[in-house]
Structures are given as structure tokens and as C-alpha cells.
Amino acid sequence: MSEYDYIIIGAGSAGCVLANRLTEGSQNKVLILEAGPMDHKLMVHIPAGVYHAYKDPSINWNYTSEPEPECDDRRIELPRGKVIGGSSSINSMVYMRGHPMDYDRWAKDFGLPDWSYERCLPYFKRCESSDRGENAWRGGSGPLGVTRGTLQNPLFDALYEAGEQSGQGTSDDLNGYKPEGIARLDSTTRYGRRCSAAVAHLKPALKRSNLTLQTRALSRHIILENNQARGIEYEVNGQVKQAFAAKEVIVSCGAIKSPQLLMLSGIGSADTLNAMNITPQINLPGVGQNLQDHLSIDSAYYCKKPITLHTLTHPMKKLSVGLKWLATRSGIGASHIWEMGGFVFGNDQVTHPNLQYHFTPVYSDWHNRKIRLQQGYVLTCDQLRPKSRGEVKLRSTDPHDRPASHFNYMSHPDDTRELVEALKAMQNLLMQPAFDEFRGERINPAPEAKTDSELEAWVRGYSSTDYHPCGTCRMGHDDLAVVDGQLRVHGVDHLRVVDASVMPDIVSGNLNAPTQMIGERAADYILGKEQLPAEQANFHFLEP
After folding, report:
1. How confident is the model at residue 1 (pLDDT cuts 50, 70, 90)?
2. d(C-alpha 210, C-alpha 205), whole Å
3. Among 203, 237, 308, 447, which residue's Cβ finds the most Cβ atoms within 10 Å?
């Protein structure tokens, strides 16, 4: 029998943070279990290899949604990292905290005053080391490398200029004073390499004797005794093993796997569990509910000038980029490509931006698992605060089975309306004079799609996702809450959930930065430390 102080299930974005914080400066004996392998694949570490990383089935759970009724019954792809670092090892590396008002909404609407932005800000800062330097909004000495994009391309300049021309605005730092407008994006890179949660937090911690990592370990169920988490049963190479925790078991498997593991352990809706022939241990109807994600749509044009990144299709060009990166950690290989984006208003009814842009100077499509690059550019737009809600369900009691993810995209009519507004906002931006010298034929939406009904049909047929699932084990105090404000599972001692599943409501931006912040805060809760003092930073929307 193996016994530890803490067991962390999942070496993803939050789990890596926890592994680092729970073992630093202490004698705590910690085990972290990861279903995937080590991050030895080269494409994980080359930022420009992102296209290949998130399509690689050896490091990806390769989830899809269930058929989505409002998306023409399509199954929508949902890559999730199955490797140390989790999705931070295969994502597009965009570092975005979300809007400060998101966290104030958590505090006000969900009775979570300790999760206001001023209480979260010091943990964002503790986590990051920004190349912008330490200031009121930024951290300068944390483990996570955060780098402002530097790739030069005339299309990036055109997008920024179009932001001014359109009135959609510009910003110097979307994580700083003005979290609105078109701007250069930050990325989780350092010295030209991906800085995943594994690179930033886990690997340095593995040098300590009190941390044990077990890869290729599939968790089967949490061991419960008298409403207390005692340990975990897991499987390695077909062998079933058990490990026990003297202090806490911490579930950090992500928004899809965390509710699955809880339900397999008898924690969830009693009716649902009984229907699956699982004996209910703790009746928590909210487990698996409240599933949210950012649905996205593209607007793309062919480019009249050969300035896009389509030349990377050519083997010799690709080879030269790779060799330069290997030798110097610089050049196109050091870029995650999505270096420009923005937050904008799709209508005048919202208090803060409800649309998010990501822009890349190349058009790409996939044939099987091979990417084809074309001479074009793409603006992607996410609807940031959807009203639609989905759920994660068990397919069976077999932990190897993938759970069923019903996102119910666009089940609320406001979501469909906002995505049509998004297409119009993108069209307005891309038709500005700044793009006149580059703009060729429109690729997406199809040129013939012009009316609202035609655009809506396009959204239903071609929308995808930016891979931001969350909310399935949400914080709160009502009947559908799964964890409390300190991320302790209701009704179970010594058990917490720490990952994006605890978000009560999705934030307006990419989820990796907030998930690592949640891990930072959770570590202090777990260790019984005082939370860092609140910090108030000035923002332009607060000024009269």
C-alpha cells in the first residue's frame, strides 16, 4: 500500500501548479497521476507546431461532442491534452485572463466574494513572469513565462489599423489597463519555446524528493470511507493499483474527466447513478451539469499579396524554419501564429466585450490529419458569455469509456443572435481601408451568405469551438453547486476539485490562465495559508 499526504489526479494546468506549490518548502509527500505520457514530442515544444500538437492522437483524448441539434446535428471536435501539462501542452498558447468583470460576476451572482477580481489578481501575478515586467497588472517573477507576440507581418499591422478605422478600438495590453480593442496577444512561451504548465511548474518540482509522478495512470474511482476521500484506485499497464492520502485527494482532470471520475466514485445525481447501477455515495445533482464553452466562427479571405505563412507548406521552407528554431529558438518556429486578437462589443446591450478575436496570417484546412496552408488570412471570433448550458454524462461504468458531452450549443436563441452579430462585426473590421491592398475573394462565410438567415445557417453548419469547456463541478452554495468557495466537494471530507470545471460561469477569454490562477489559489487553501491581500488595479472602464 502506498500512502502520501496529497494525491493529485491529473497533471494538467491546475494539477501541475498544485504539484509545485504543495511540495515547495515542505515535507508533504505528494503523488500526481497522469493518464497520458511525458511531453517528449518535439511538436509540443515548438510554438509553431501547435497545429500538429493538438491533432496528435497520442497526446490527445480526441473528444467530440454528442450530435448538436442546433449545429445541424454535427459532432464538434474537442481536443483535450492527454500528456503532462494537459491542454496547456497542445493549446494555441494564448495567455488571456478574461475581463475583470467576469470575476466580479462570480462574486456577486454566485455568492463567492473571495473570487472577485481584486482577490484573484495577486494570484495571476504570482503565477506569471511577463516580459512586460512587474506592474499593477502584471507579475514579473512567477514560474509561467508570458511573452508578447513579436512576429512581424503586414497583415498584423492592417488588423491593428482596422481596429482604429472601424471604431472597435485598440489596446496595448488586453490583460492590463484596457482589456478591450485590437492588440498584440500574450502567449505562454519563454525563450522561443512553449511554456506549458508542465514546463513551468511540474518539471522544476520533480527535482524534489517529495513529489512522485506516475504517467499512463488511468484513475478508476476515488476510494471513499464514511463520506471521506481516502485514496484512489488507478490502472497502469493493465495493473490495478491503489494509493492513499493522509490529508486530501484533489481531482484535477478537467471539465470532461473530473465529473466522470466523481460519478464513477458514486458522487453525483443519485437518480443518474442508480440508473447506471452505481451505488450513490453522495447525492450531488450538479456533477456534470452547467457545461459551457466558447463557440466560434471564422471569417477568411484570400490574400492578394504573397505575404502569408502559406509557404510553410513547402518541405524545404518547413525544414529551414525547423532548423532555425532548433539552432536559435527564433523565427517563425518560435511563434504560435495567433499573435493578434481583441475583445470587442457586438451590441450596445453588454457592459463589457462579448466577442473575442483571434487572427492568423494564413488560411488552413485539414485533410484527415494533414494540414494544408493557403495564401489567405483568418479572423476567428468567439461568443464569450453563452447562455446555453450542457452536461457531461456517463456512457458506462467503464473508466476507459469517454463520457458523453452534450454542449447544447445555441440552445438559447440569444447565442445564435450574437454569433450572427459576430459575423457582421468581423466583416466590418476586415472591410476597412487597411485591408484594401490585401483583400482577395472571401472564403468564409461563403460569399453568397449575406442575409441574417443565410448567416445564421452558416453559423449552424460551420461553427466550431475554441476548446474552452468548463463549469461541470461549479463553485457555489445552491443545490447544483459541487464545491464550495475553497473548492471542497460538498458532503465529502478531504476531497477537492481544482480545474476549469469549478468555474461557476465561463470567463470572457481563453481558460488556461484562469485555470492556473485557480490552482495557485487552491494551493493556499489546501495548505491553510492566508490568501494573498487583495490588489486593486486601475482599468479604463472604471474611470468617469
Report:
1. low
2. 9
3. 308
Predicted confidence (pLDDT) per residue in 186-206, tens digit? 999 999 999 999 999 999 999
Beta 77-78 vs 63-64: how paired, if at all? antiparallel
Name the active-site residue from 294, 468, 490, 540.
Answer: 468
**Separation CA 496–CA 382 (nearest Å):** 30
Residue 31, H or E segment: strand 30-33
Q: Are 173 and 445 in contact (CB under 8 A)?
A: no
Cell numbers for 477, please give them: 452554495
Q: For residue 85, give the C-alpha cell.
A: 501539462
Nearest to 196 by CA among 513, 529, 523: 513
Residue 427 grid coordinates:
466583416
pLDDT tens-digit profile of 266-315?
999 999 999 999 999 999 999 999 999 999 999 999 999 998 888 777 77
Render pLDDT for 135-153 as a digit per residue (tens, 0 to 9): 999 999 999 999 999 899 9
Three cell numbers written together for 173:
495590453
Q: Which helix (H) or strand (E) holds 51?
A: helix 50-53
Query: What residue spans of 388-533 are helical by DSSP H?
Result: 413-430, 452-462, 512-527
Kindly provide the b/e burial profile for residues 318-336, where b requires at least 16 CB atoms within 10 angstroms of the residue's own CB. Answer: beebbebbeeebebbbbbb
CA distance 489 to 24: 25
310 is catalytic: no
Q: What pLDDT, on the 0 to 100 scale, is given for residue 369?
A: 63
Q: What is the pTM of this model?
A: 0.96
Q: Residue written as cell 514579473?
A: 140
Cβ-contact 310, 375 below 8 angstroms: yes
Whether 390 and 404 have beta carbons less than 8 Å apart is answered as no
* d(C-alpha 192, C-alpha 326), whole Å: 10
Question: What three-state secondary structure class fits 85?
Answer: coil
Cell of 323: 532548423
What is d(CA 230, CA 305) in angstroms, rounded to the nearest whole number? Answer: 63
- Give the chain's mean pLDDT: 95
Q: Evaluate whether 323 touches 384 at the Cβ level (below 8 Å).
A: no
Q: How many other C-beta atoms are found inside a 10 Å radius of the C-beta of residue 64?
A: 14
Contact 429, 166 (CB under 8 A): yes
User: What are the residues facing 181 on neighbouring strands?
Assistant: 343
Residue 187 near residue 95 (C-beta atoms within 8 A): yes
- CA dist 544 and 537 (Å) reads 15
Q: What ranges make up the beta strands (E) of 177-293?
A: 181-184, 186-187, 189-190, 193-194, 211-214, 217-224, 229-236, 239-251, 267-268, 282-283
Computed over its alpha carbons, how large is the radius of gyration of the chain?
22
Is residue 144 a contact partner of residue 134, using CB atoms and an 8 Å limit? no
